[in-house]
Design goal:
Layout (H helix, E strand, L loop, with lengths): L2 H25 L9 E10 L11 E11 L6 E3 L6 E4 L3 E6 L2 E5 L4 E3 L5 E3 L3 E2 L17 E2 L4 E4 L2 E5 L2 E3 L6 E5 L2 E4 L7 E2 L4 E4 L1 E3 L5 H38 L2
Antiparallel strand pairs: 1-2, 3-18, 4-17, 5-6, 5-13, 6-15, 7-8, 8-9, 10-11, 11-12, 13-16, 14-15
Length: 245
Amino acid sequence: MDPLTIAAASGLRSRMQALDLLANNLANTGTNGYKGDQEFYGLFSSAEASGGDSGPAATLPVIERQWTDFSQGTLQVTGNPLDVALSGKGFLVVNGPNGPLYTRNGSLEVSPSGELTVAGKYAVQDKSGNPIHVTSNVPIQISPDGTVNQEGNTLGQIKVVTLPTTDSLQKVGDACFRSTDPANRPADAANVEVQQGKIEQSNVPVAQAAMRLVGVMRQFEMLQKAIGVSTDMDTKSIQEVARVT
């Protein structure tokens, strides 16, 4: 395989991965607390891709890894007392099936057992790591420090934490993350305000993501044409060689 076809095929592969990320971002623009994914490119050198020892190593574009943009999304006023948004860096802590999960999705619900939950299944932790129980159909008040009050009684304080690094956070669905590094221990968040009656929207800029999607599609088409040109050149070369007498 000639270097042109190899480089174009590598570009097609990286563009397909980029398309998957963009499509997922666009599909979650309406998901509260969703954080968009981006791609980090690198160059891969391969002597084998150049035909072995006969030539210099080929340098091919690849997506080295993907990363998540944890910047804050727009805080939208909903007026729903069960909606909370975090103003500042931090995460709500919820009880996942295999340990604590971290999320910016503050669309809370009351479970049948009376627990405050995210996505209807993950109980929100208080400062002690326990679920917060409330009475259904009774108004609640949530103060800026996360303290939950109902009918004049303090029911608990919503746990808000920060992590030394977000590199070890892995998406698990429902705009939640789990930490894959036990050494990346959470700490109580500072300078974070819990705002009741608001919700944090996805931080994916829809117009920008749509423009990037169009750009990636055009690049994909150009790379396909490059492979077609390379194939035509190879075919003509074979035909010309066959005519030599």
